[in-house]
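Appendix B, Record 12. Input sequence as logged:
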Amino acid sequence: MKIHVSTSKQVIDIQITQENVHDIKKAKELVENAFRNLQEKGKRIFKVLADKGYDARDFYDFIKRIGF
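Logged structural output:
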């Protein structure tokens, strides 16, 4: 089992997968859910921090498209 988490000052989203699911496969979903959850509370995301497991051109392009 593997747990993928997005946080601000608290947990925003948790995705649980099999251990063979690479981090990058959940990256967009985590950011989209965090964006939506915070937006509903009148907050926004200013920065995305991630480790090497999220290091992919497609993910960088996605972050730029949604305004980070």
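Residues 2-65 form one domain.
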